[in-house]
Amino acid sequence: MRHTAAHLLAHAVVDLYGPEVKLAIGPAIDNGFYYDFLKSTPFVPEDLPRIEERMRELITQCMPLAATRRTAPLVVETASRAHAALETDAAADQPALQDASPRP
Mapping DSSP to helix (H, G, I), strand (E, B) and coil, where does residue 83 land? Predict the structure, then answer.
């Protein structure tokens, strides 16, 4: 669930702020999840309600989820197409990664 929520957050941020936002990593952690972004201007607390609302809208779309095992080269290729330059750097060192939700 947390892994999927991280992908949902990334999807919402890219939808709202465009492909100039670079995605880094968004792992699930023991008490939740987070996502690292690189954006020309920092996020401010006032951005959160808008991001949360977009996440709720995406949830109502009932997008299909499918767990897949991916090799690092495939993750790099997918992230490159999604303008996720920072994520490609992180993925390049991983032998295999698991992805359970749609990409933004």
Answer: coil
Question: Rounded distance, CA 12 to CA 66, Å?
Answer: 19
CB 91 within 8 A of CB 72: yes
Question: Which pLDDT value is given to residue 7?
Answer: 81
What is the structure's pLDDT at 102?
46
CB 2, CB 29: distance < 8 Å: yes
**C-alpha span between 102 and 6 (Å, rounded):** 11
**25 beta partners:** none
CB-CB contact of 3 with 101 (8 Å): yes
Q: What is the mean pLDDT of the chain?
A: 74
pLDDT given for residue 76 in this prediction: 59
In the chain, the amino acid numbered 69 is R
The domains found in the chain, sorted by start residue, are: 2-99 (3.30.980.10)
